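Fill in residues.
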């Protein structure tokens, strides 16, 4: 049994949930659960500081609906954070969101594989941000993925 499963099963370890929003052109927004700012090691080996704050995370359901959205709420957001999220939502660019879990006894690496998603939408309400991030959009994916066009396959012109 790995560390994170053991922590969930026994409830002896504190699980630190982190969220990293990589807004283009702005410093990344890094938030972790708890009351103390933490210096955590990413899977790449880089040590970065996560700011402690109220973070509410609702994981996506594991089902066959095709919609895998993670709902997040971050409270007590600074003006810089609000401006960065507003810029990300208005730009229409792809904004990566990374969710990681650490066990308090081992901050040298995430306890499980990080969830990598894309920011899909959100709303600002005072000092609270509610955002949605999602995985690969399976429902709006074309099938077959390869488009058979006459440019790639010249013989199609004669059909």
């Amino acid at each position: 049994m790995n560390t994170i499963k053991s922590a969930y099963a026994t409830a002896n370890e504190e699980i630190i949930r982190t969220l990293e929003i990589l807004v283009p052109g702005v410093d990344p927004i890094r938030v972790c659960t708890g009351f103390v700012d933490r210096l955590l090691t990413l899977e790449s080996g880089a040590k970065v500081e996560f700011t402690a704050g109220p973070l509410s995370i609702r994981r996506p359901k594991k089902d066959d609906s095709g919609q895998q959205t993670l709902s997040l709420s971050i409270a007590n957001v600074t003006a810089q954070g609000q401006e960065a999220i507003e810029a990300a939502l208005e730009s229409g660019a792809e904004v990566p969101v990374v969710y990681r879990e650490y066990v308090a006894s081992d901050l040298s690496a995430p306890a499980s594989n990080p969830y990598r998603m894309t920011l899909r939408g959100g709303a600002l309400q005072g000092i609270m941000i509610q955002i949605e991030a999602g995985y690969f959009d399976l429902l709006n994916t074309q099938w077959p993925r390869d488009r058979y066009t006459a440019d790639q396959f010249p013989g199609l012109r004669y059909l």
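The chain has one domain: 3-158.
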